[in-house]
From TrEMBL:
<dbReference type="InterPro" id="IPR033985">
    <property type="entry name" value="SusD-like_N"/>
</dbReference>
<feature type="domain" description="SusD-like N-terminal">
    <location>
        <begin position="25"/>
        <end position="220"/>
    </location>
</feature>
<feature type="signal peptide">
    <location>
        <begin position="1"/>
        <end position="21"/>
    </location>
</feature>
<keyword id="KW-0998">Cell outer membrane</keyword>
<protein>
    <submittedName>
        <fullName>RagB/SusD family nutrient uptake outer membrane protein</fullName>
    </submittedName>
</protein>
<dbReference type="InterPro" id="IPR011990">
    <property type="entry name" value="TPR-like_helical_dom_sf"/>
</dbReference>
<comment type="similarity">
    <text>Belongs to the SusD family.</text>
</comment>
<dbReference type="Pfam" id="PF14322">
    <property type="entry name" value="SusD-like_3"/>
</dbReference>
<keyword id="KW-0732">Signal</keyword>
<dbReference type="GO" id="GO:0009279">
    <property type="term" value="C:cell outer membrane"/>
</dbReference>
<dbReference type="Pfam" id="PF07980">
    <property type="entry name" value="SusD_RagB"/>
</dbReference>
<feature type="domain" description="RagB/SusD">
    <location>
        <begin position="362"/>
        <end position="486"/>
    </location>
</feature>
<dbReference type="InterPro" id="IPR012944">
    <property type="entry name" value="SusD_RagB_dom"/>
</dbReference>
<keyword id="KW-0472">Membrane</keyword>
């Protein structure tokens, strides 16, 4: 059975000076490594590649990103515990450049991944490595670098474009066209050297699906509708991806690597490598949800004081028969055997997409979905609608997602106008992608992120569509200008 990259994360010490994973990689024994030779061979460069993947995939960072992307919207809420001191800043739109999560989850890990990718690219041509392997590692490093810039652009707008380790530390932000052109050209250039999906050496490493999936979301969020249509067609033409049959089972550990996942960040129930989101999603004294009886809390798991909650208006927008509601906990049995109705308190339902029966303390092994095939279908439908208004093709794409959820097909009469179908697609995306960290970007793209916050009584301003460059970065790199409003 093909090893997942998550096990490489767990088994390998991801440093430049120590590598050793039996039956996973053909590596030089740790004693033969030294600062002088670590970047001259396949083992050292592969270790550094996994370090770059690792920075992209920091478990606490992803939990933080989900929350920062959702409590800023009409979807999610938070109370309790130490995390609320930070999350309340995002709920109330009072974040500023000094907020540690912005630097620690949005900025530093992603630039660390870019740094590792750059080191690989600067050393691979002179390394003792087979040409085919060199081409693959080069493509993966360029994929990581370009995808990280796509994420950074989504949060901050144009950022410093670091493509080598020899650039000056004081580097200004790239022009917008420069950064966007780099992301697009890099992802396009590497496609020929990336494996087809299912042919990657380990699950979690980049494939053509990864590059095309990130390109699709990049084009979608920059409203390049024709390119969304073209890129999603290339994904369909791979004849590989499909919707997983049962929505609630899609996220289970035993179904990792399924064909719905174009891009996923692997997790394992191990310190430093686990999905920690469920710990805050569990309500107090949680035992199990009647709708998910297979998810039974055990004493080996955590149940944090901080509470990741969903807003009532969002939960109430689901159709009663929507099968995705099964993963939304509105009542549960506590560890005393009592039934607890979460709806007795406002904004108190929970998303329980992620649960690992073998979780250890804070760490669940559920992979973090980044781009799913459902996203590709809905992105294509959105682009088709923006280009030409409602069409049967767009509805057929949406209806694939709705059918799995147990909902009736939409018709052209239901679609009405471009504006009506646009709103329907946005709603569908909310029901499909809750607790996956997509709501903020969706609302920004639809132009109602600020308005919906203001409707909740928040003093949101236009500049809040971007986060501030971290204060520490401004202090370290005076050539970087802060985003307006901060």
């Amino acid at each position: 059975m093909k090893k997942s990259i998550k096990y490489l994360f767990s088994l390998c010490l991801l440093s430049l000076l120590s590598v050793g994973c039996e039956d996973v990689l053909d590596v030089v024994p740790p004693g033969e490594f030294s600062p002088g030779n670590v970047l001259n061979n396949e083992a050292g460069l592969t270790s550094l590649l996994f370090s770059a993947y690792r920075f992209q995939n920091l478990q606490t960072g992803h939990k933080n990103l989900i929350n920062m992307e959702e409590v800023t919207t009409d979807m999610a809420f938070n109370t309790g515990g130490g995390e609320n001191r930070t999350l309340s800043l995002f709920i109330n739109f009072t974040w500023d450049p000094s907020v540690g999560w912005i630097q620690g989850s949005m900025w530093n890990p992603h630039y660390n991944a870019i740094r590792d990718a750059n080191i690989i690219l600067e050393n691979i041509e002179t390394a003792d490595i087979q040409p085919a392997t060199a081409s693959l590692l080069t493509a993966e490093a360029r994929y990581i670098r370009a995808s990280e810039y796509a994420f950074l652009y989504n949060w901050f707008g144009p950022v410093p474009l670091r493509t080598s380790t020899s650039q000056e530390e004081s580097l200004p932000r790239a022009r917008e066209d420069e950064l966007l052109g780099f992301i697009e050209s890099e992802l396009e250039a590497i496609l020929a050297d990336l494996p087809d999906p299912g042919q990657e050496p380990q699950w979690g490493r980049a494939t053509k699906g990864h590059a095309l999936g990130i390109l699709t979301k990049f084009y979608l969020n920059t409203k390049q509708w024709a390119k969304v249509v073209e890129t999603t067609q290339r994904i369909l033409d791979l004849n590989y991806y499909e919707l997983f049959p049962v929505f609630k089972d899609l996220f289970k550990v035993e179904n990792e690597g399924n064909k719905e996942l174009l891009v996923a960040w692997p997790q394992i129930n191990d310190p430093g490598s686990g999905n920690t989101y469920p710990n805050g999603a569990f309500p107090p004294n949680f035992s199990y949800s009647p709708l998910l009886p297979e998810y039974v809390w055990s004493t080996s798991m955590a149940n944090w004081a901080t509470q990741y909650r969903l807003r009532d208006d969002f939960v109430d927008s689901y159709a009663a028969e929507d099968q995705r509601l099964i993963t939304i906990v509105q009542e549960y049995v506590n560890r005393n055997g009592d039934m607890v109705n979460l709806r007795n308190n406002p904004n108190n339902s929970r998303s329980l997409k992620y649960f690992d029966p073998a979780a250890v303390a804070n760490f669940h092994g559920n992979d973090s979905p980044i781009v799913r095939f459902a996203d590709i279908l809905l992105s294509r439908a959105e682009a088709l609608n923006e280009l030409n208004g409602p069409s049967q093709e767009a509805l057929d794409l949406i209806n694939q997602v709705r059918s799995r959820a147990g909902l009736p097909d939409l018709t052209l009469a239901d679609a009405g106008s471009k504006e009506i179908l646009r709103d329907r697609i946005l709603a569908e995306r909310g029901w499909e992608f809750v607790s996956e960290g997509k709501r903020r970007e969706d609302l920004i793209r639809h132009g109602n992120f600020i308005e919906r916050a203001q409707n909740r009584g928040i003093s949101a301003q236009p500049h809040h569509v971007l986060f501030p460059i971290p204060a520490a970065e401004i202090n370290a790199n005076p050539a970087v200008e802060q985003n307006p409003g901060y």
